Amino acid sequence: PRPTGSYFLVANHLSYVDIPLMLARLDARFLAKSEIAGWPVMGLLARTTGTLFIDRSRKRDLTRAMGEIRAVLARGTGVIVFPEGTSTDGAAVEPFKPSLFQVPVELGLPVQCAAIHYDSPGGPLPAWQGVCWWGDATFGPHFYQFLKQRRTVATVTFAAAEASFDADGTGRRKHLALAAHESVRSVFTPSRTPTGPSATTSS
Prior knowledge:
By secondary structure, the chain is α/β, with parallel strands linked by helices.
């Protein structure tokens, strides 16, 4: 079921398309890297939908971003995070970075989980090339190629079980990140058949 109200949701990250896809389904705010704010099209969309931005090059910015996440949750709105910290070709779900899981740990909030999948029937490129944004692909040429795709089918699958942690345990952020990763993997469908190490790009 789709989460409602105040929730912390994590998902795998495949493309800049993920943001409008999820916003069309959920009442939530995204956390995205600060560079996106300056992008054409996607930057405007992110700014006008109240996206929260984080500067990954500055460690102290993590504290500020977590404060903004807490404020959004306190207002009864959901927050969506891509904890892989990168977009991929959809062959696998990359390990989750545990830092931002400190917020649900502090609030005692279970983590909602979802998996994103794309398919491009009719081409001209398979989804892992024409929709997923990874490797050394630059935004402009890739976005132009995405617009040339005849049809893109997007599927968001919400995990039935929430990810939680043992309140008496240690390393709770890491434990929660591992539990959430496994929950996303349980409903994940690859956009590309794995043939080796998954390719990624900072996105």
